[in-house]
Design goal:
Blueprint: E1 6-11, H1 22-32, E2 39-44, H2 50-56, E3 62-66, H3 83-88, E4 93-96, H4 99-104, H5 109-121, E5 125-130, H6 134-138, H7 142-153, E6 163-167, H8 181-199, E7 207-211, H9 216-223, E8 230-233, H10 240-247
Parallel strand pairs: 1-2, 1-8, 2-3, 3-4, 4-5, 5-6, 6-7, 7-8
Helix pairs in contact: 1-10, 5-7, 7-8, 9-10
Bound molecules: phosphoenolpyruvate (PEP).
The site of phosphoenolpyruvate (PEP) has 13 residues, from strand 8.
Length: 252
């Protein structure tokens, strides 16, 4: 919707060691030169790099987020990380409910919702991911699957400040395949209508990201779709040149 400031967020997944942070310098200098980008820019590195990425991007246009969190503040949860810990490291947002978490860790909608609530509790923005599998799309179930995920994964109180919704068709992630702009428009309209029906005015300007094989070559077309307010980017967020090429869709 007009007036919503877009967000281009990168998800590094389980890629990246200290040396990889050099990309942030390239990204920051690319953003500082040339036309102003009419979007916010975020990178979500592995949790081991969050604090270093925050330090490295100080005084730049790049913010930093986490990729997942536990629902609790603290506790005997070996290997997990809380929203408060990510906030303490300087993250401003957390991706929750990514399809890789849902598939590989069996995360359910109620668990995703608890994680989104944890992000809010810690004062962070929850980037809540939804999206259908290929089989579900083939079966004509995409709208129902996404609607059910929204109903189950979103907290009762959301607004543009604390929540972003990312539509990521599972079959488009890392595959090089993308839905048609018409298919993206259909789902994003369903998401917007769902948010307005449930949250009223608070749902009007929540940012809706499209994610799944976004690249410089398709960014302009996908980002122009109605109700698309930015992108969640996996593979193409690892290289500054590619990520800047996507951000270029918001530079004029
Ligand atoms: C993702 O995993 O969130 C994603 C969108 O990946 P890719 O851009 O590589 O498809």
């Amino acid at each position: 919707m007009a007036g919503i400031r877009a967000l281009v967020a990168g998800n590094w997944k389980m890629y990246g060691v200290s040396d990889s942070l050099a990309m942030l310098d390239e990204l920051a200098s690319g953003l500082a030169s040339g036309p102003t980008a009419a979007c916010d820019v975020m990178l979500c590195p592995p949790s081991t790099l969050v604090a270093a990425a925050v330090a490295r991007t100080k005084d730049t246009q790049v913010s930093v987020g986490g990729q997942d969190c536990h629902a609790d503040v603290s506790g005997a949860h070996t290997g997990d990380i809380s929203a408060e810990m990510l906030a303490d490291a300087g993250a401003i947002a957390i991706i929750v409910g990514h399809s890789e978490r849902r598939a590989e860790h069996g995360e359910t909608d109620p668990q995703v919702r608890a994680k989104a609530e944890a992000a809010h509790r810690a004062g962070l923005t929850a980037i809540v991911c939804v999206g259908e599998t290929e089989a579900e799309r083939r079966a004509g179930q995409a709208v129902k699957v996404v609607s059910d995920q929204l109903d189950g994964s979103l907290p009762d109180a959301i607004n543009a400040g604390n929540t972003v919704v990312a539509y990521e068709p599972v079959w488009a992630i890392g595959s090089g395949l993308t839905p048609t702009p018409e298919d993206v428009a259909e789902i994003h309209t369903v998401i917007r209508d769902n948010l307005i029906a449930r949250y009223g005015d608070s749902g009007v300007d929540v940012r809706l990201l499209y994610g799944g094989s976004v690249k410089p070559a398709n960014a302009v077309e996908l980002m122009a779709v109605a109700n698309v307010n930015g992108a969640l980017v996996g593979g193409a967020s690892l290289k500054a040149e590619d990520f800047l090429g996507i951000i270029a869709a918001f530079r004029s």
